[in-house]
Amino acid sequence: SRENARHCSAVITGAVITEAGITEAVITKAIITKRVTIKEPIKESQLIMDIVDTIKGQIADNPVLIYMKGSPDAPQCGFSAKATQILMACGERFAYIDILANPDIRATLPSVSDWPTFPQLFVGGELVGGCDIITEMHQAGELQPMIKAVAVNDD
């Protein structure tokens, strides 16, 4: 039910949109996917706000976060591969979001960050930039100290 959907952490990975709003959705929670019928249609504007809130939460909850195509061990584009190699060279843990597996985030993040391309690196809740800026900062010796300053130590 919609009530239950509000209280669980899930991603809508597909939806049926009518003039009344979203009437059916494919919800993925962890690795479980199921189709649900929504009794009260969700307005598209509410869905977008939920995605914006999810993105803001991801950025706030992860000191070093990269939105990329694929994963660090299986990047799906050269820019994402180069950016994650640089992050790994910095020697600190970082989080990633695969935008190819999260099309709603892929579509919404550019309006949240005011940055049109991927990958997008956030450090300490602030957008650093894409692959070119990450590369330039790394070559100038500026990226590693920035990441170390916000990195979470597991010690």
Describe the structure.
The chain has helices at residues 2-6, 44-61, 78-89, 103-113, 131-139, 143-150, and strands at 11-18, 21-29, 32-42, 64-68, 70-71, 74-75, 95-98, 120-123, 126-129. With 155 residues, it is an alpha+beta fold. The strands form three sheets. A four-stranded mixed β-sheet has the order 7-4-8-9. Strand 5 (70-71) and strand 6 form a beta hairpin. Helix 2 packs across helix 4 and helix 3 packs parallel to helix 5. It is globular and about 40 Å long.
- The chain-level structural class is alpha+beta
What is the C-alpha radius of gyration, as a whole number of Å? 17 Å
Count of individual beta strands: 9
Which strand order spans the largest sheet, edge to edge or round the barrel?
7-4-8-9
Number of helical elements:
6
Helix content: 40-55%
Q: First CA to last CA: what distance? A: 42 Å
3D shape:
globular
Quaternary structure type: single chain
Run of helices and strands = HEEEHEEEHEHEEHH
Strand content: 25-35%
Helix/strand layout:
Layout (H helix, E strand, L loop, with lengths): L1 H5 L4 E8 L2 E9 L2 E11 L1 H18 L2 E5 L1 E2 L2 E2 L2 H12 L5 E4 L4 H11 L6 E4 L2 E4 L1 H9 L3 H8 L5
Parallel strand pairs: 4-7
Antiparallel strand pairs: 1-2, 2-3, 4-8, 5-6, 8-9
Descriptive key words:
alpha+beta, 155 residues, single chain, four-stranded mixed β-sheet, three-stranded antiparallel β-sheet, globular, disordered N terminus
